[in-house]
Amino acid sequence: MVDFMAGKADRGYGGKVIALMDYGSGNLRSVHKALLKVGAEVRIARGGGDLAEAQGAVLPGVGAFDDCIQALDRQGLLSATRDFIASGRPFLGICVGYQALFERSEEFNSCAAGLGIFRGKVVRFSGANGLKVPQIGWNQLEEINPACPIYAGVPEGSYVYFVHSFYPQPADAGIVASRTRYGETFASSIWRDNVFATQFHPEKSQTVGLRLLGNFVKLCQGA
Amino acid sequence: MIAKRVIPCLDVHGGQVTRGVRFGRAEAGELRNVGDPVELALRYNEQGADEMVFFDITASAHGRATMVDVIERTADQCFMPLTVGGGLKSVEDMYTMLRAGADKISINSSALANPDLIRAGAEKFGSQCIVVSIDTKRVAPDRWEVFSHGGRKATGLETLEWAQRAVSLGAGEIVLNSIDADGTRAGFDVVITRRLSEALDVPVVASGGAGSLEHLAEVLLEGKADAVLAASIFHFGQYTVGQVKDYLASRGIPVRRI
């Protein structure tokens, strides 16, 4: 078996593995199962060192911005995330994992500094015109950037699942990968180079979400 | 535009989905078995349900262990939002269910007994995670009150006041169950649903009484609910989720179709 070691490496931690960051986020299991469903090999990353060998990384998130940042920091995942992104390997942030990429949040009593990968802050829905906050439910992806590889095969107008009161306002409109309307129009996802992030939950968005995750996994596997 | 949600509700007792009428009691044999929760969840997933709600109607330690298993198995196969309720009394209980694959936690009697649980849950997991479910009954021509323990115990609380308090403590969504209408298939209580929907700045899910497609449209249009929760019409095969959505769309209601 000449290829034994190579094959083993491909299936092992040193191979085409996606690191899924576990810092106590409630949706870890759902993201994990969805990644497995689309053919990923997943390693749960609990410390910065766990990202070193991964071909791709996913930062899930549910809950409060500060909790997320502080928990990541405690586990050494904050600086590891910065390094990972700088390395050029594919990265996907989900929900609070999307918000964490920005400089800061206006969430109640927030004082934590975000990763600052992108300029801009995280703001709350105004709740104008009687709109309920949080936005809970299925809303549409409008104006998808057709060049964004994770949207291959996802038509504009597709519904995805949102649960959030806050959303990032990128200073650079060029990174917006999709927009969604909920009272105001906001950046429901972004993309720049190797960094992808969604305010919605692909792991809860049935077929459309699995398509998106599958596209991301393919990118990682090709990396 | 955000879609109005159609949510099948699975009441789980002894590992089986059951269905009662007007909050019928399991111990009195007032429930009908309608099937395996994971099988039903898969069916509704394929039909395009927007979410699913699981209630542990035994609300016991054993029931909770069963529910963890049901949620895990469902979440492995259904990539959609799942809410769990029934007998969850602490932040640890909530965490167990979230880790099993639930997205939202629904609390009812435990929130009435300990309103601070709403705040504690919202602080830990975010408001979007904490659903307060309210069982309400019309006690006078223009007064609705809250009942606890599966509708058996009067609290004397006025329904809107309790809902407002729950939201101020951090509830991110309110499920309003009409005890009068539950399982009767005679229509939702549109009046109290609308009252809450207009007064609260979080989504309101209407529950209890869905019998016809017209009822569902009525509580979304007249009752201004953000979502409808229904059990009997789906469990007994009266309608599929897809048929419900086709009808709602024909009435001009925005729904997600697959």
List key phrases describing it.
heterodimer; A: 223 residues; alpha/beta; 7-stranded mixed β-sheet; 3-stranded mixed β-sheet; 6 helices; 12 strands; disordered N terminus; B: 258 residues; TIM Barrel; 8-stranded parallel β-barrel; 10 helices
Descriptive account of the structure:
The complex is a heterodimer of chains A (223) and B (258). With 223 residues, chain A is an alpha/beta fold. Helix content of chain A is 26%, strand content 28%. Chain A has 6 helices and 12 strands. In chain A, the strands form 3 sheets. Chain A has a 7-stranded mixed beta sheet, with helices on both faces. Chain A has a 3-stranded mixed beta sheet with strand order 5-6-9, with no helix packed on it. A two-stranded antiparallel sheet of chain A has the order 7-8. In chain A, a hairpin with a 2-residue loop joins β11 and β12. The two termini of chain A are 26 Å apart. In chain B, α1 packs parallel to α2. Chain B is globular, with a radius of gyration of 17 Å. The chains are: A alpha/beta (223), B alpha/beta (258). At the A-B interface, α2, β7, β8 and α6 of A face α2, α3 and α5 of B.
Please describe the topology of this protein.
The complex is a heterodimer of chains A (223) and B (258).
Chain A: H1 4-11, E1 17-21, H2 28-37, E2 41-45, E3 56-59, H3 65-74, H4 77-86, E4 91-94, H5 96-99, E5 104-105, E6 120-124, E7 135-140, E8 159-164, E9 166-170, E10 176-182, E11 184-192, E12 195-198, H6 206-222
Parallel strand pairs in A: 1-2, 1-3, 3-4, 4-12, 5-6
Antiparallel strand pairs in A: 6-9, 7-8, 10-11, 11-12
Chain B: E1 5-13, E2 16-19, E3 32-35, H1 37-47, E4 52-56, H2 61-77, E5 82-85, H3 91-100, E6 104-107, H4 109-113, H5 116-125, E7 130-140, E8 143-148, E9 153-158, H6 159-169, E10 173-178, H7 190-199, E11 204-207, H8 213-221, E12 227-230, H9 232-235, H10 241-250
Parallel strand pairs in B: 1-4, 1-12, 4-5, 5-6, 6-7, 7-10, 10-11, 11-12
Antiparallel strand pairs in B: 1-2, 2-3, 7-8, 8-9
Helix pairs in contact in B: 1-2, 6-7
